[in-house]
Amino acid sequence: MGIPTYTLNDGTSLPAIGFGTYPLTGDDGVAAIRSAIENGYRLIDTAVNYRNESEVGRAIRQSGVAREDLLVASKIPGRDHGYDDATRSVHESLERLGLDHLDLSLIHWPNPSQDRYAEAWRALVDLREQGLVRSIGVSNFTEAHLQRIIDESGVTPVVNQIELHPYFPQVQMRAVNERLGIRTESWSPLGKRQAPFSEPPVAAAAEAYGVTPGQVILRWQVQLGAVPIPKSATPERQRQNLDVFGFELTDDEVAAITALGRPDGRLFDGDPDTHEEM
Ligand SMILES: NC(=O)C1=CN([C@@H]2O[C@H](COP(=O)(O)OP(=O)(O)OC[C@H]3O[C@@H](n4cnc5c(N)ncnc54)[C@H](OP(=O)(O)O)[C@@H]3O)[C@@H](O)[C@H]2O)C=CC1
Ligand SMILES: O=C(O)C(=O)[C@@H](O)[C@H](O)C(=O)CO
């Protein structure tokens, strides 16, 4: 069964699930990313700050899958938010990846104290016009950050990649993204080391559908309309994480997993109004 796709607000297509590559580096990283591509992932998520763009490029070339069948997303770090810096950053990413364009480029964190994310956005708008980037988006943006770049540029991001897992279901932020016509992407979609695999709603659904708790959580993501980008260096888990389109949770099951949300559900201090990454 192929991976379903969404049509984004710029008319391009995005697979309903992607592969996260942090912190896969070195030859082992290449092997894991190549395995993910060979297992069927067609959206590969990297970033300048993952220091693995060259590994992603090597894995693509070794996989034997045609470049045009893959979507490669990378992210601009906080230190490169100036217009010229952001432009240079994307060029350098392409060099490390060995590609002539990115399918998706995101601003990694808004870094509001620097207050230059709107400049980085203007650079991405121009890079898209120049054909170096097919689609442009953001990550860890709040409603205020989104509204500012939309008001100043007239261009709406295609995605907002945010922390999203059962302990942190981001009900409000998902509603903001939807209202603005922005597709939500979920980072740490399983909840990383705090994955709620044994929580009753997750365990019960796994039992009911004969799937793993990880598959229940990723199916929950899909039914929220979010695009999860789970990372796994384990081929069997890579396959499992992609195999979430053969069953459907009831509305009550979705609601019960969303109800696992906690006020302190963030995995670390990743509040976009205060957490900054250069
Ligand atoms: N934009 C941003 O600011 C951020 C973006 N990200 C992106 O999101 C991606 C995914 O997030 P990440 O933080 O890795 O967390 P995930 O929620 O994807 O969890 C990854 C961890 O879960 C394990 N795992 C994967 N699949 C399963 C499974 N089916 N059952 C049990 N354990 C499993 C993996 O172990 P193993 O590898 O051994 O299988 C790994 O340790 C990152 O790789 C990155 O691309 C992440 C953080 C911030
Ligand atoms: O993985 C990412 O994209 C990040 O932004 C990471 O640096 C994230 O902040 C993290 O993993 C911190 O533990």
Automatic annotation (TrEMBL):
Active-site residue numbers: 50
Lineage start: Bacteria, Bacillati, Actinomycetota, Actinomycetes, Propionibacteriales
Gene3D superfamilies: NADP-dependent oxidoreductase domain
Residues the entry annotates as binding substrate: 108
Source domain of life: Bacteria
Occurrences of domain NADP-dependent oxidoreductase (ranges): 17-192, 205-260
SUPFAM superfamilies: NAD(P)-linked oxidoreductase
Species of origin: Nocardioides agri
Single GO MF annotation: oxidoreductase activity, acting on the CH-OH group of donors, NAD or NADP as acceptor
Protein name: Aldo/keto reductase
Family label: Belongs to the aldo/keto reductase family.
Swiss-Prot/TrEMBL keywords: NADP, Oxidoreductase
InterPro entries, per the entry: AKR, Aldo/ket_reductase_CS, NAD(P)_OxRdtase_dom_sf, NADP_OxRdtase_dom
Pfam short name (any one): Aldo_ket_red
Site annotation Lowers pKa of active site Tyr: residues: 75
